[in-house]
Amino acid sequence: MDNRTTAQLQVETLRKRGDAAGTGRWLKGDQDYVAEYALTSEHIPALISLATQWGAASSDPDAIYGPVHAWRALGQLRAVEAVQPLLNIQDALDELGDDWYLEEFHKVFGLIGPAAIEPLAAYLSDDSHGDFPRGSAANGLREIVRHFPETRARVVTILTAELARQQTDLGDLNGFLVGDLLELKAVESAETIERAFAANIIDPTIVGDWGDVRQELGVSGLGIAADRSAGWPSIRERWGFADITAEQRKLAQERRKQHDAERRAKAKRRQQKKDRRRSHRPR
Fold this sequence. Notes:
Elements (H helix, E strand, L loop, with lengths): L5 H10 L7 H6 L4 H4 L7 H8 L14 H11 L6 H6 L1 H6 L4 H13 L4 H8 L6 H17 L4 H13 L6 H13 L6 H9 L5 H4 L2 H8 L17 H4 L7 H35 L3
Helix pairs in contact: 4-5, 5-8, 8-10, 9-10, 10-11, 10-12, 11-12, 11-13
């Protein structure tokens, strides 16, 4: 006898939906999980349980992508209850080198809307989380503005305050923050951005140098940051195709070593992800 509730049985049907390709459809409403599965707030606990199984090994090839469908459905339901559980699994997914959460969690948060702002802001400011998980939270805040323009001032304040902390050794995250502020056309954040560039804590490969950013913002700046970020080698410099000073070369070499180490770590994580997906395929 199956003791599961009707809601759990409906979510079980969604779990076995299959391939999760076509990410744009669910955002545009063409793939309406709520209507197709008659989902209501009653289904939220079961959907959260399913969504947070992403990354776990599965012996059922038909249900591998069930968690993806579940978190998309939670976004369409605007289920604020799902925000913290999804945030809680981001670090583990990042360790696996997972790309799906980076591609979709922020979009789910965006659909959920203003109620997600405070938990996302708290997660973003928590130094115990990794760069990319925190970047996902920042992107979620930006996405909320896309769906709910009235939240722009609050979100810009949060992102600007985080960048103003001038956290060293977080070049990726700081770059993500600047990128989000650029998308929000946050001219009011120009001084904070310039000061971060002056502190040389932004990886310019994420959003460009200060010269690029100030041009996009349409500001002249305070003159405290150079248009070109020091010590972050260009592609030409990495391969020795540019004339640079000995000091610049030393800085470039140090940065290249760091970049190469990060690249190797990311490549290892990607391979682990491929191995995990391969183990899920039917034999």
